[in-house]
Design brief:
Elements lengths: L9 H22 L1 H7 L12 H23 L5 H24 L7 H25 L1
Helix pairs in contact: 1-3, 1-5, 3-4, 3-5, 4-5
Length: about 140
């Protein structure tokens, strides 16, 4: 597999990364704010989230999306159906499984609740990102 970083669709990676960040913002502040705070052992969500709550997830998503772009190119995927298959594999098989595994850490107050809230976000984000990468 000989794929140079210059061959990647950096516009697509950037757009997908911003879209994933926005999805996470809606997910954790509008849809699951109180539930997420409880599974993290907080009485309430902080009024103002620290910058690391935005920058960290953005950078991690950027790397995951870049990796998906490499896989799309290496596997010669250019259609939406195959992009959704790859997005499902990455979202569940890699990101979702790793997220659930990390949550099992004894320091997480409610690991299963965390996984139930977070894994679907990563699946949806992976599907969305794969579609954006193929579309652009």
């Amino acid at each position: 597999m000989d794929i140079a970083l210059t061959q990647l669709d950096w516009l697509g990676i950037g757009v997908a990364s911003v879209a994933h960040l926005l999805l996470g913002g809606v997910w954790y502040t509008l849809l699951f704010r109180d539930r997420y705070a409880r599974v993290m052992g907080l009485d309430e969500w902080p009024a103002k989230a620290p910058a690391r709550f935005i920058v960290g997830p953005f950078l991690c998503s950027f790397v995951s999306i870049m990796t998906t772009a490499i896989l799309l190119r290496a596997l010669h995927i250019s259609g939406y159906e195959d992009a959704l298959v790859l997005g499902s594999l990455v979202g569940i098989g890699y990101i979702g499984a790793t997220t659930a595994n990390i949550a099992i850490n004894p320091l997480f107050p409610h690991p299963y609740g965390y996984a139930i809230i977070t894994v679907p976000l990563f699946l949806i984000g992976s599907l969305m990102s794969s579609l954006i990468l193929v579309a652009l």
